[in-house]
Each structure stands twice: as C-alpha cells, then as structure tokens.
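Why should sequence recovery work at all? Because a backbone constrains its sequence more than one might expect. Tight turns favour small or flexible residues, buried strands favour hydrophobic ones, and helices have their own preferences. The token representation captures these environments compactly. In the example below, the structure is given first.
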C-alpha cells in the first residue's frame, strides 16, 4: 500500500479528535484564548447543549485583520517563543481554532484597540473563506455552529443536551476559579444564566470566587493552605474533615494557573485525608501550584489537562505535608452543615433521619444491653508480648453505676433528676468554696468545647460554652483520641517486626524488584525487611508484627505497584494504621456507658488538645456545635 500525504482538512479532523472531544472542549479552548488575550469580561452563550451554537465574546486585545488567516492555520500561535519549556500561557499549540473549524461552521470577528473597524473570517468544514470587514467591538467574538456536522459519526457519542450543557458549566467554573478578576457569564437555551462577577485578584477575591462556584458553605468549612518547598509553592483552601462530598468532582487543582486533572495531585489529597475521612467520602479542595515552567511539562496531551512534574515526589510530599499541617493547626472545628441539619430537625415539620443500622461502633438502643464498668480517660499504651499495642484504662466504676447489674436499661436517662444528681456538688461549707467552684466553671466555659453539663442516652455529652451548646458523641470522640495515641506510638519508633522462619521469595519483574530495593530502608522502618534476590525477585525476611499472618507475596506486589504509580510506599503504612484504627475502635469507651462529670470534662479537654478530633477514625463527626444565636432563632427570639 503506497504512502500518501494526507490533506490539510483530514489532518485538522484528526487533530480535532484529540482536541475537541465534546462541546465543553470547545468552550475550554475558546475561553482560554480569551484569557490569554487579557480579557476582563467573557460571555459564553450556547444552544442545544453547545452542539447547535457556542458563542464566546471577550473584551481582550483582539486580532488585527492581517492575522485572522494565520489564526485558523495549524501551528500558528502568538503565545510561544523559541523555548518549548517556557510556557506561560494557557494555549500554545496553535491547533484549537483550525481543529474546531474542520468539524463545524466557525466564524471569528475581531477588532484591536487601535483599529477603526473589525474584520471577520469563516471556516466551514475545513474550507476557509476570505477575510472581510465586519462591525465589531474591541475584542473577539467566536461563533461555532453545528458542531461535528462534518463528522456526523461523532454526534452518536454525544450525551443529552442537558448533560452537555452541564459539562460546559463545569468547565467554565473550573477555569473561572483561577481568574477571579475576570467576569464570566454563561447563558443557554433554557434561559438560565450563570454569572460570576469579578471579585478581585487578591486572596480575599480568590476566596470570593471559590464561594461563587462551590457555594457559600465552603469558606466557613475550609482551611487556608500556604506552603512552599524548594521552588514549588502551594496555595489554596481545603475542607475540614467533617465537610465532605460523595465524589471527587469538587477537587480543583491548578498548575501555574492552568486547570489540570492529575493523578499525582489526586493521590496526594487522598493520602493527606487518609485517616480522617470515610472510604466513600471525598474532601473538597482548591489547590494552586506555582513553579518554574521548566519543572513541569504541560505538553503531554493535546487537551492540556495532564501534566508531568520533574520531581513528582517533591510535589506530592508538599501537598500531603501542607494539608496535614493545616488540619493539625486548625484545631477542632465542626462543619456548619451539621448545625444546619440540627436546626432543620428541630423545626416543626423538619426531616426525620433514619438510623444507619446497628454496627460495631454505634450500638442501637437495646433494653437488655449490659454496659461495661466505668473507667477514666488516662490511656496507657504499652507494647504487648505479641508486639502489638493495647490500651489499659485506669479507674473504678462510678458510685451510682448500677446498669451492669440490672437486666434492663433504666428509662430515666438523659435529663432526669435521679441521673443528673451526680452533677450536684453537695452543700458548700463556705463562700470561698463556692467562689472557687464558680471560677472553675467560668474557666471551662471559656474553652472550645466548654463545660460538661449532662450525658444524654448514655452516649452523648452535652456541654456549654460562653455562646454555644455542644453535643459530643463519646464513643466516636474517644475512638479518635485512642487512635492518635496509637499512631504516635507507632511513629515514635520503628515498628516491631516478626522474623520469618524461612524467607519468602517473591518473583517480580526486574524493574519492580529494583524499585522495592530502592525503598528498602523506608519499608524497614515499618517492619518489612526486603532485599534483592537475583535479578527478578526479592526476599522478605521480616514482616510487621501488627499484621500477624498475612499474604506476604500480595503485600509486596501491592507495594511495587504503588511505588511504580506514585513513587511512595504508603500501602504498608495505611495497613498498619487500619489495624490501629480497629484497635482504637474496640479499646474506646463504648456507647451506653455512664460517665462521671470529671470524666466527661477530661474527654473534652483531650479533644481540644488532639489534632483531627473533630471526626472519628471512620470520618464521622464527633461533635456538633449549636450557637446561642441559632437556639434563639428556634424560639423566635431573633
């Protein structure tokens, strides 16, 4: 079969298959061109989900008449000089406009600031018309009609008009977050309009734009990020652990202002939130990475959504470390959505929430449930003979505790007088004693979680601060405290290992064996002894004692796959932390156990001193705070 030179139209259509995947891809390319032109206002109008019409109008610098023909020619661009590694604009390939013109009816009308009138050029299915004068405001107007009419087979793979319109809106929002000083408007055939007014280019302006896109709840439930390592800077906002979503669609990442979908960044976010979120929940993040263009390759894919970092380990470590440090420094904060849900539940006709079902962590109400004796919260973590960790709690049962000796749980729990008698300190013998007690209570009210006032249903601690009411889930809260203590014990010294009687030989591809050998010192810190055993195998001589009997070969292969994918060996660490979480769950104070006032206050103080105690190991909130102003609203006082 002879080799033939493809026609220019076919070349453009092949390029369009990579650049123009759907109408949202067209909007992305055109809006990025407008931003590169310095636009301060961008208006997008669509019809039929973008398949019938896409119109992008901007007030940027515009194009002179003599350059319009070049604009729709392949590999013609004003954004790239001689160095392909010095890319400081959103576009640089010079492929978008000719690719769009090859599969649609494209019209470009533009006028520069210095010109008296504008000019227009049209492309229909790859056929270019001559440039002609046209009335135009300063800037550029691009119209794309009948998308994919020249390649009708592509239309079969389009989704519904609503789905395509939603994808366009998501694309515009993703871009808009990175440019808060620009005003964006999106209108469609359903007469709906999305308007994102300019909020300014400073930090407050950026947060204002984020609130426009992600909702007004996010700023109140987020933590600011500002960190740097070597030549890489990381800024943005991340959600507190108790504010999550069911998917990762609200995780936005930007590299030098360019919106990207990068596996490395997504993996780093998961790693940073690994032990504070449920497995089926995702954090909400907006992260901006800034680094020298020479250290990142944006020329990986024509869509420019993928990037490659010269030092991926540095970038991943910066993201994980910065988020974890921010979460630790933020202290304990409840999500405002929890307060809103409580307010809705208290109002007449509010929603009724179904119990998620019995579990090992939260026992349902059972009149025959026998509670364990009381104990204080002085956890003493010691190494067990098997090399693991156990939690020994010191303390004696409370004086009025009689549930364990009764076949039925008393019904006068909660705020009943008999139960709350333990809060009565008894008669005070002097004014000085009364004054001393008042000072203690006043001091507790000034703390974040306040002073314990009651225990409700033998599971929830009710506390009072100066301006709010706090409800704490005692089991979930103590579970987090025990887990953090176990993690500190694990991280403070090498993990105890268990020597194998016979080394286990695991056959691997040579490159995987080499990667494991490079990370052998890190693995040894977690109790896994690995060494090379020939060109295509490794010998495992020790395993972490906490794992007990485990599938060594599968563990080693999982580690090799993770190192190949992200250059980390976190799988082993996550398994050890999962065991620690299970131990914390079973070693924590159980639901249904009565607590003395001093025990409840001790728990509250430990929560205040423990990072991440706003959620339990499974990602559920440990407490909800209801402000006094909200309570007054419930009673019509405001």
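From this structural description, the recovered sequence reads:
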């Amino acid at each position: 079969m002879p080799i033939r030179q493809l026609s220019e139209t076919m070349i453009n259509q092949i390029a369009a298959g990579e650049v123009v995947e759907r109408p949202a891809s067209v909007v992305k390319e055109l809006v990025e061109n407008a931003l590169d032109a310095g636009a301060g206002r961008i208006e997008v109008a669509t019809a039929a989900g973008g398949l019938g019409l896409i119109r992008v109008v901007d007030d940027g610098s515009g194009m002179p008449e003599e350059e319009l023909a070049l604009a729709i020619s392949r590999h013609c661009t004003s954004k790239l000089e001689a160095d392909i590694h010095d890319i400081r604009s959103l576009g640089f390939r010079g492929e978008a406009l000719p690719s769009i013109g090859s599969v649609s009816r494209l019209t470009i009308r533009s006028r520069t600031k210095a010109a008296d009138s504008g000019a227009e050029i049209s492309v229909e299915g790859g056929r270019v018309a001559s440039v002609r004068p046209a009335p135009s405001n300063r800037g550029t107007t691009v119209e794309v009609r009948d998308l994919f009419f020249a390649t009708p087979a592509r239309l079969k793979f389009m989704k519904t008009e609503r789905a395509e319109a939603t994808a366009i809106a998501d694309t515009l929002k993703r871009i808009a977050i990175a440019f808060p000083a620009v005003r964006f408007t999106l209108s469609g055939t359903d007469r709906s309009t999305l308007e994102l007014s300019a909020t300014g280019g400073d930090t407050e302006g950026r947060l204002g734009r984020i609130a426009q896109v992600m909702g007004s709840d996010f700023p109140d439930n987020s933590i600011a990020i500002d960190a740097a390592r070597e030549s890489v800077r990381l800024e943005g906002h991340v959600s507190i652990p108790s504010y999550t979503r069911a998917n990762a669609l609200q995780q936005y990442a930007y590299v030098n202002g360019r919106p990207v979908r990068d596996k490395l960044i997504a993996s780093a976010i998961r790693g940073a939130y690994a032990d504070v979120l449920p497995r089926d929940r995702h954090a909400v993040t907006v992260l901006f990475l800034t680094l020298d263009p020479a250290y990142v390759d944006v020329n990986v894919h024509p869509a420019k959504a993928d990037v490659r970092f010269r030092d991926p380990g540095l970038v991943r470590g910066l993201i994980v470390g910065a988020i974890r440090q921010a979460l630790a420094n933020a202290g304990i904060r409840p999500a405002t959505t929890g307060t809103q849900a409580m307010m809705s539940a208290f109002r007449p006709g509010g929603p009724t929430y179904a119990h998620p079902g019995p579990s090992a962590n939260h026992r349902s109400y059972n009149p025959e449930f026998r509670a364990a004796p009381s104990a204080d919260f002085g956890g003493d973590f010691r190494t067990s003979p098997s090399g693991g960790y156990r939690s020994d709690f010191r303390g004696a049962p409370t004086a009025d505790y009689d549930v364990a000796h009764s076949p039925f749980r008393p019904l006068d729990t909660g705020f009943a007088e008999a139960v709350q008698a333990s809060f009565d300190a008894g008669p005070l013998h002097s004014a000085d004693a009364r004054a001393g007690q008042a000072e203690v209570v006043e001091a507790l009210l000034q703390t974040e979680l306040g002073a314990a006032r009651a225990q409700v249903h033998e599971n929830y601690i009710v506390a009072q601060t100066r301006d709010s009411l706090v409800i704490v889930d005692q089991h979930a809260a103590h579970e987090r405290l025990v887990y953090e203590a176990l993690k500190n014990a694990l991280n403070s010294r090498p993990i105890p290992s268990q020597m194998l009687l016979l080394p286990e030989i695991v056959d691997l591809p040579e490159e995987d064996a080499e990667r494991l050998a490079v990370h052998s010192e890190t693995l040894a810190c977690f109790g896994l002894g690995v060494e090379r055993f020939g060109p295509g195998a490794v010998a495992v001589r020790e395993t972490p004692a906490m794992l007990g009997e485990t599938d060594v070969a599968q563990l080693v292969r999982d580690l090799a796959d993770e190192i190949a994918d992200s250059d980390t060996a976190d799988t082993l660490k996550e398994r050890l932390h999962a065991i620690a979480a299970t131990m914390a769950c079973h070693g924590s104070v159980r639901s249904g156990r009565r607590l003395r006032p001093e025990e409840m206050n001790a728990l509250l103080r430990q929560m205040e001193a423990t990072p991440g105690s706003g959620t339990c190991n499974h990602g559920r909130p440990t407490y909800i705070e209801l402000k006094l102003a909200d309570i007054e609203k419930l009673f019509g006082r405001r």
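A few observations help interpret the result. The longest strand covers residues 497-507.
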